[in-house]
Amino acid sequence: MIIYTLSFYLFSTIAVLSALMVISSKNSVHSVLFLILSFVNAAGLFVLLGAEFLAMILLVVYVGAVAVLFLFVVMMLDINYIKLREGFLQYLPFGVLLGIVLIVELGIAFFTETFSEMSLVEYAQMPEITITENTKLLGFVLYTKYFYLFQISGIILLVAMIGSITLTLRQREISKKQIISDQNNADASKAIIKKKIKLREGI
Amino acid sequence: MTSDFSLMNDIIAPGSIIIAQIMAVIVPVLVSVAFLVYAERKVLALIQLRRGPNIVGPFGILQSFADALKLLTKENIIPSGSNKIVFILAPIITMVLSLAAWAVIPFAPGWVVSDINVGVMYLFAVSSLSIYGVIMAGWASNSKYPFLGALRSAAQMVSYEVSIGFVIITVLLCVGSLNLTKIVEAQTTVWFAIPLLPMFIVFFISALAETNRLPFDLPEDEATLVAGFFTEYSSASFALFFLAEYASMILMSAMTVILFLGGWLPPFDIFPFNVVPGIIWFTAKIIFILFLFIWVRGTFPRYRYDQLMRLGWKIFLPLSLFWVVVTASFLTIFDMVPG
């Protein structure tokens, strides 16, 4: 069991340290790479909890797709670091406020037993698992108990997708779009025209 | 420390078993990479009516080892304008990821380092992570061609991952489990390549794109991008990229075999076939798929970039999505849903 304890400390230490590096490193691409490292370690923590499906989904969706696009955007940006640091003091109170709210909420989740019998963490503990694989269990819960919520979240994603497409889609005047069937139907007799050009006149 | 903790029982004994298992998987993979490179050069030579490597060792079989030795003794050049840490990390990450995936591959009944419940998801996750090696290499080189190659590669891998995901879902629908051993065992009656033939083809082509192989090797398109994302790499770090590319080729072949060609199962469960051990069937099938990889390389011209994207998003994605619906409906109507 010592190996599990050691790996817990390994994963959590790296996760926390890389999260710190996300906000403190000077190069924004490094920040994103540290964010990815933090995600991977969070996935390791999920595995230790026995939530292997969540761990893999975290890797596939967040690390494999979302963070890639994020990295893309950050690489393309031309960021002026000195200008970024300018407004630091101006935004500081807002950041501190957000942090305080987060800490208070976490505290409520853990220490509610001072007001009632059990804390929120204990109240929301995992139910007795009858099916062994948590993939099946998740599917079972998602498609029965939370079916409507699941569908609604799907629709929200669809709306977001359509929204972003309509925002970026623009019909250009001269479209350079390729029409495959036209290309396949093209033949030499239509493509080439012979012209007799008079000297010093051009076409 | 608690009293029931003992260094021998808790760390050294399980640790050494794990390391031995890892070595038993990684060493054959790395050796087979060397022979795959040789086989590729030889097959391509035969396709193009040449002789191929024939100097080093009998039939030139030691050519790859000579090349590896040559690469490792060369000077490792790090461009002065590069981002050094990321530049060095990129090939290491690529290599580690292409080897890490082998942990869940079942070679024969019970022959697997880690028989986890979400084996397919793990493979999918690792193959989607391998994009980082490419992006980091392209960005850290601080040079035009590598960066363009990395951007192409990222877009290409993200696009084809989507259809690979749907293909995996169709297989999972027929199995009812994400465990790779169970996926192989579910193909005892019929290999999934037969009922799911279109998905098999989509998966194979997407595997070509996912491993950046011809006809989809635009990230390292030598005619336009010099050598793509590893233009600036030399010596050992180049060797790592090279090894990783071929290791992930073998990995994708192994994945194809497990998902569609029945893994270690013999084609028919009758006398002459079922006495052959599973590992030999598994290896033979992997070699067949690898031969297809090389054959495709020797036969097809490179795709243009917009054609590649069109194939991924406008043909494979709708087709695989359609097949997910068809398979699910079929299984439900005929009451064949497993598990």
Write the layout of secondary structure elements.
The complex is a heterodimer of chains A (203) and B (339).
Chain A: H1 2-24, H2 28-49, H3 52-76, H4 81-86, H5 88-111, H6 120-123, H7 134-144, H8 147-168, H9 180-185, H10 188-191
Helix pairs in contact in A: 1-2, 2-3, 7-8
Chain B: H1 7-47, H2 63-73, H3 84-100, H4 119-129, H5 131-140, H6 144-175, H7 180-185, H8 197-210, H9 222-225, H10 235-260, H11 271-274, H12 278-299, H13 305-333
Question: Nutshell version of this structure?
Answer:
The complex is a heterodimer of chains A (203) and B (339). Chain A has 203 residues and is an all-alpha fold. Chain A has helices spanning 2-24, 28-49, 52-76, 81-86, 88-111, 120-123, 134-144, 147-168, 180-185, 188-191.
What distinguishing features does this structure have?
heterodimer; A: 203 residues; mainly alpha; 10 helices; 72% helix; B: 339 residues; 13 helices; 67% helix; globular
Low-confidence stretches of chain A: none
What portion of residues of chain A belong to β-strands? Answer: under 5%
The chain pair forming the largest interface, with residue counts per chain, is: A-B, 30 and 32 residues
Specify Rg of chain B, calculated over alpha carbons: 21 Å
- Stretches of chain B where pLDDT falls below 50 for ≥5 residues? none
How does the helix and strand content of chain A classify structurally? mainly alpha
The total count of strands of chain A amounts to 0
Characterise the protein shown here:
The complex is a heterodimer of chains A (203) and B (339). Chain A is 72% helix and 0% strand. In chain A, helix 1 runs antiparallel to helix 2 (28-49), helix 2 packs antiparallel against helix 3 and helix 7 (134-144) packs across helix 8 (147-168). The longest helix of chain A is centred in the N-terminal third of the chain and has 25 residues, at 52-76. Chain A is built from ten helices and no strands. The relative contact order of chain A is 0.05. With 203 residues, chain A is an all-alpha fold. By secondary structure, chain B is an all-alpha fold. Helix content of chain B is 67%, strand content 0%. Chain B contains 13 helices and no strands. Chain B is globular, with a radius of gyration of 21 Å. The termini of chain B are far apart. In chain B, 45% of the residues are buried. At the A-B interface, helix 2, helix 3 and helix 7 of A face helix 1, helix 4, helix 5 and helix 6 of B.
